[in-house]
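Lecture 7, part B: from sequences to assemblies.

Below are the input chains for today's worked example.
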Amino acid sequence: MAELESILIEEAKQDSRAFGELVLRYQDRLFNFLYRMTGNREDAQDLAQEVFLRVYKALHRFRPDAPFRPWLYKIAMNLAINHAKGRRPTALLEEDVPSHGPLASPEGTAEQRETQQAIRQAILELPEVYRAVILLRHVDELSYEEMAQVLEVPLGTAKVRLHRARSLLQEKLREAGIKGGDHELQHRATAHPTLPG
Amino acid sequence: MNCNIAQQLTQHFLDNALSQAEARTLELHLEGCRDCRSYFIRLERTTLAVESLPRLAAPPDLYVRTMAAVAQSAAAPRQPQRRWADLGLMAFFALAGLLIALQSGPELADSLADLELADPFSLVDSLFVVAASLELSLLAGAALIFAAGCGTLARLIAWGQPSPAH
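Predicted structure of the full complex, as structure tokens:
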């Protein structure tokens, strides 16, 4: 996988058409990340295009042994953060359609949709850096090392930021009244299936 | 264990970074602490909710637009002014080197003649002596400042050109 990517990158340095393979490989993930960062499809599309263009222009300086994915996300994150500067927090107006992926389903109860809407809004209300950290880890599934590379901070600092981001997000969801009252929580916690030991 | 530590352990649990012993300690605390139990469940639920958000596909025209922009960028000459600036910088360095050679060459020859060198070791020694002479140092310093100034000028010429992204 990583080797194939390295070959693609080396080819893309020589041939702009080969660069298209990289675009196809990453466009969905990048668009999704930027959409969750901005809350707006048009902005996400414009930013994704800009990210790819910047990558293309700087590709000749990219070392073959360097990890590509953190570099790509670093450019995307920085662009999204700059884009958000001076703007008011985004209010969601649109539904997540069309969607794909193992967890995406066009069906779903009104309650599920409401919960998803609240989560999307809560993510958008996080400070940009925390928003990015949550998305990088829990949506784009970057490793902690990759996350630290994107943020350009030590591994421990990256983890601390993720912890802070999670705490802020659960706080916002609690304020938004997302279901999961203490009675239900007590019931679940007494027989929690995933806690080891 | 106090609640702050329990909440930290909850975060580590979500990072899959808890040892068995830590997990057992956390579990014991959660059994007796309603607040931390609520925090644990809320945090885990939040994480799961984020992970279950739908993944959106890129709009079909993103690829087309991106590749059009890439083709346009590939067709454009890459920073011609920057190339000229680099050439200018190289020329200035060459000139500075030439000046040093012209100025110090005869002095060097005289110095070497004065030393009446007999073998390679004394030649090396004498070169150090000559290089350390005040006159040559001043000359070299002036040439370096001159070259640095020219380099800055060349960079200023290139200023305004878009720089590659990092």
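Note for the exam: Chain A has two domains: 1-85, 109-180. Keep this in mind when comparing with the next example.
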